[in-house]
Every structure is written in structure tokens, then in C-alpha cells.
Write a structure and sequence with these properties.
The structure holds two protein chains of two kinds. Chain A is α+β, with helices and mostly antiparallel strands. Helix content of chain A is 38%, strand content 23%. Chain A is built from 13 helices and 23 strands. In chain A, α8 packs antiparallel against α9 and α11 packs antiparallel against α12. Chain A starts with a strand and ends in a 5-residue tail after the last helix. By secondary structure, chain B is of the alpha+beta class. Chain B contains three helices and six strands. In chain B, strands 1, 2, 3, 4, 5 and 6 form a six-stranded antiparallel β-sheet that branches. The longest helix of chain B is centred in the last third of the chain and has 20 residues. Classes of the chains: A alpha+beta, B alpha+beta. Chains A and B meet through α1, α2 and α8 of A and β3, β6, α2 and α3 of B.
Amino acid sequence: MVYNNSENLVLEDGSNIAVIGGGPAGSFFSYFALEFSERFGLEINVDIIEAKDFNCIGPSGCNHCGGIVSESLIQALSAEGIVLPSNVIHRGIESYTLHLEQGTTVIETPVHEQRIASMFRGSGPRGSTGDDELSFDNYLLDLCREKGANIISGRVIEAENNNDGVILKTKEGTEKKYDLVVGAVGLNLKALQLFKNLSPSFKPPQTTKTHICEFHLGEKIIDEYFGDSMHVFLLDLPNIKFGALIPKGQYVTMVLLGSDINKQIVSAFLNAKPVRDCFPAHMDIESIMPCQCYPTINVQGAKSAFGDRMILIGDSASSKLFKNGIGAAYITAKAAAKTAIFEGVSENDFRKHYQPACSDLDRDNMVGKFIFTVTTIIQKSPLLKKGLLSMVIKEQTKANHKRLMSSMLWDTFTGSAPYTDILKRTLNPMFSINFFGHTLKRIFNGSNNK
Amino acid sequence: MKNKKLGRLYNDGEIVIKQGEQGDCLYVIQDGKVEIIDESGEKEIRLAELGETEFFGEMGLFEKDVRSCTVRALGDAKIMTIDKRNFYKTIQKDPTLAYRLLEKMSNRLRDTNKKLRNQ
């Protein structure tokens, strides 16, 4: 490590970087740090320290996530030369099926090609055979290993600032000094506390509880009942802003997003008619649920997620509200890697070059909160929902019809576009005229579109 | 071929892009192979064969001209498009996304120079 002036700390040949956490954020950081340093002609060492074994089946190998890689991320990764292998993709998603109490409609992908992947972060739910299918997190770790990263199985229990580095101690008894420590620890409170000790001004993200569970249905039933479509629900149920059923190989993953989801809320969702109608009649779906969890998600970004020689990325810093957490991990990890390699690893470097990426996400989430508030109003109004459904059905059935509502819903569900872009599109006067036109029609003819 | 790969499926011999047509997106091969063909003469000339993770159609991102070659699937291939607008928007925020594109274009230029020297 060298000082290029009184404030900046710069990595040099032989510098050591520790990445705590081997999920997507940690892997993306390591991959790009090694990629940029190679292009830049800098030789660095990257240790990824991860306590979990993603080869394990069930909760011990899982990172508790819905398991969707968004359209925008798939495109960005393709441009980077990262093409997801067949055994990581459990299903390519080509449409979204929107379920309301008032009816159902399918929103097709605008380009008629599969650009969204469903996958498992670990090696599948409890009881799954794993077979030749790969965990997404393991695949990314393998990419890092190929680039030259060392994957260390262990748990960091202590981090201490030293004059010329940060000393990390693991539960396994190792101790090593690093020139930069990267926190990709998700929302793990104990691990976040390590970073608070390094930089007291760091304030962890605010969180809320969600729900994820898996249904073991088998490929044949999934093909017949779900197809290659992600089923999304805008139902008038308390606390739930959004529910989804995501088809995968042998399983369907259910994700409920909102605020403080609990058992009663999950039960109300499962018993709602539009949800029940997605499954074979008379199937006792609660008996085919091998895994379920109530993970927390980031709903408000961290403050001061960096300091001299330390930085937090992914969920530990800023994420995208309710959607595309892996996409946000990619954005923050890459911004951190660019800063560390090309600029420096001081607090000022991170503030100047990394913070803008987090601020962009945080600002966009403010708009996202507004969009979800409007969505909640629509969720509670049968009339507005009829208008919405009618508008989508018309857009989807008429060729060359401008797909204003469909594209807005597509981007909201997929998380592919920033919320700010989505809001801008809804400000198009044609959007409001069409939406209220369809709603007024429902008032006058009182019919249901099914 | 297991078809869990993303993108659109092109069958053997199917044209992905046609020389002389307008185009404004980049293609990335997710699975399988394609061949690049020059159809400007009387006989078609096979210029290259591309495989998984490679891209083509990049000229369409930077020029307003028509496609310079025809590309067709060599066996079944899964190919994903990257929209020009999305690509530019992303590059605006993250210019490093263009590194690989520049690297590949540089490699192709080097190959062309080599071929010219050997003629």
C-alpha cells in the first residue's frame, strides 16, 4: 500500500484485499477487481472469506433470495462475457402472468426472447437431489477462482484497524493483515457490526421481513400450470405489496414482499383464490413445502458505507427496493472495484467515486416507494384494478398497440428499469388518459374482463 | 442441446442478421455457433465462425449503416440481443462495460491485418 498524497491510499503490486462474503456482491467485486487490475497491470491478491458452503442442499447452503436474475443484469453480464450456463438456469422466463381478484392476463416479453433467469442461490431446497444443477453463488465463486481469487472457508470474528492495514481474525484461528476489506455480508447483523467497529460513522441499512418458500411440484406439473411465466399477484391483502410464484426446475418459489410479513399473512395469501387457482385443484400445497424462511431485505440504504481501507457493497450498503437485489449487488460491487483499482482505497476516494452509485440507487428507491404507494392504492380499489386489467388485455391482444401499462408493469415486476424511468413513462398524458378511460368504461358497463 | 439457455432459439441455417438490412442491436451467443458470411460477391464467402459468449452486430451500435455481413446459425443456437438504447444508457454510467467490446474489435482488426498480409 502506498500513499499518493496526504489523503489517498492506493493499491500497489502485492496488495491484499479481503472480501467478507461470497454471495453475488462479493463475487462481482472480486471478479471485477481482478479483471481491472489485470488490464491496469497491477498484481493484487483477493481472498474471499465465506462461511457457507453453497454446495449444501437446504438452508445451510442457501442465501435466502427469490432467485431471479433480471433482464438488465443478464444483458450487462452478456456484454461482460459472462453467459450463465445451462445448469445454473433453472428456467428462462418469457412472460409475466398478472393475477388480480378481477382476473388474469399474460404480459409477454417485449422482445420475444428469454432474458430473465430463475435459479437457486444454493444447491436447492431441502430434499432436492441437486443432480447436475449448479448453485448461482457457486458459479460466480468459480468465475472468481478462475480469475485468481482464493476462496477461504471461514468466519471473520474480529476486524481491527492498524496503521497500515486492517487485521482480520477468523473463528478458525487465522489472522491476516489486508490493505482493503470489502464487506459483502448482506444484512447479517453480527458481520455488519465488524464494520461499525472499523468505521463508527457507518449506519447499517434499514430492513423489513419478507417471506420465501418452495413448493415441490415436479417439472411436469410446473410446465402445465406455470410454464415459463412468472406469476405475480396484486391482491388486496394486508402488508403484502407484491407476491410472486417463480417456476424453476422441480420447484416453484413463492416470494412475498411488503412489510413485516408473518405466518398469518402468508396463510391469507396462500388461501386467496387467485393463488389457489395456480395450483392443481385439491392439492395440499402446504404439505409440499420443504423450505420456508422469513429473510430481511434492505429497504433503506446504509449511511457512510465506507472508510479508509473498508467498504460495504450489495445489500450491506444500498439495494434496489423490492427488486433486482442481484442487479444492485452488481452495480455497487463494480463501482467499488473501479474505485479501489483506478482511484484508491481511502474514505475520500470511496466518497467521491463509489458513493454516487449508492446515492443513485437510494434516490431511485425514493421514487420506487412512491410507485409502490400508488400500486397499494390500486391494489385496494377493485375499480382501478379492473381498469388496469382492461388496459393490459387490450395492449397485449392488439398488435402494434402502444404498450404503456404493460411495459410499466413489466419493468416494475422485473426490476429491469430504474423506478425513475418507470415514473417518467407514467407521466406521459396518454398513459393517464388510457388508464382512466379504461376505468371509466368499467364504471359504465360494469363488466369484468377475465 | 439442453435449452435452458437464455435468448432466442435459431434453428440450423436460420438467418440471424441479413447483410444490407438496418440493425441497431448487438447479439451475444448464449449457446451454439454462428457463421459470418459476406454475400456482396457472386459467391458467398465464409468469413468467420463464432461460438458461446462471442458477440456480433457491434457495428450496428456505432454506425447508422446497414449490416455488413449475414449471420446464420450453425446448428441450433441460442442468441440474445442487447438493445442499443440500453447499452448506451448503461455505458454512460459505466464505461468499463465497453472494455470487452473494444478488446474484441481490436482482436478482429488484428486478425484482418494478418489475413491481408498473408494474401
